[in-house]
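User: Second chain of the day. Same drill as before.
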Amino acid sequence: MTQQSELSQATFEAVSEPDLIALAQRMIRIPSFFFEEQDVADDLAGYLSESGFDVNMMTVEHPWEEGRVTRQPIATLKGTGGGKTLMLNGHMDTNVMMSGWTVDPYEGLLEDGWLWGLGAQDDKGGLAAAITGIRAIIDQGIRLAGDIIICPVAAHKLGGTGTRTALRKGVTADYCINIEHAANTIGTVCNGSVRVKITTTTPGLFFRFTEGARSKYTNAIEQQAALIRHFGQSLTNRLPNNWLTHTPHPELADFPMIRYDTIHKEHYGRECDLMFQVRTIPGMTLESVIGDVERVMSEIKDIPNLEYKLTIPANGPDDPYHMEPMEIAHDNPLVVALAEGQTLASGKSAQLGSVERIGNYGDGNVLAAAGIPSVQYGPGDIKVYSEWPAPDERVQVSELMVTARAVAHTALQICV
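Assistant: Same format as last time:
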């Protein structure tokens, strides 16, 4: 057995399941919807500081609500020098609270090997596991050459706003594990997203009208319904005339696809907004999507009185929901180290590719676009639910332990 293998084995044994559960429960018990993460941020800052990290509390500004802020701790475990820096990025904000919970979403119930609670799977459990993995290294007195940066970020649910803020303020690394629910598979290729807004303008008309006015009138919502027929159905890649320009990707064979998100019109308003998102694949760009949408609109001849405006991305040029697709080679040192750690920790061969991140994007997309080689990896599988987001969110403790050990092994391999 090599010295590195001996270190990994000793670290695996040092990962404390009680400590991991306690930290995850501690986080679950603090509500933290996006831009309401302040309390859990403060608590994690204290925990990480006590664990030996240098902690910088960072203010995060809302991208369009002036004056609305939250905060996030950026924690650095300084190495001895000369090694690579590994970032562990996971989000503190939870999903929306869906109806139908059968347990207290803030209790952190531990039962039959499952940890229950809002954020247990997305993303507090995985974040607690990653922190516990690094704590096992610290507790053994191991000094790594490279730095470990733990980024419990705010406002992931708002397009990775916390991660975008950290990047703008100079936080960087050589590699990043973006902790996300993936059933402990390793997401090396992930979809991107472009949101499209089509605003149509039609004259308003009441039930008493002239024939001349009626001849120029088309109901705004009926216009948008007709547009939907031209763009195709949600959640299928069988789109009319295969209108999205792309080269098929073997790991994302069912993509690209679209999903309609909102349609809105005021009662007496002239304008009606239709918003949908395109889940893209590597090779597709914002410019290619814009060109495709413009082409479809220019070819429409069967919708009378069609006046429209396109906004792509839907929230303007700095739309945080615009995500570039990401991909990292399987022979990248980060992928090799994490795959080895996952195999050793689970006793099963690591699965790489789109696997259980298919259809998703994460803050890893933002980091990869900034030039930081990234993977998306962590415990929990949304396919155990009939819908997502879902009530009764939960994660298996065994998966949390695998995550902690795989992350620790990766740090020992990378930060040398």
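Residues 397-414 form the longest helix (18 residues).

User: Great, on to the next one.
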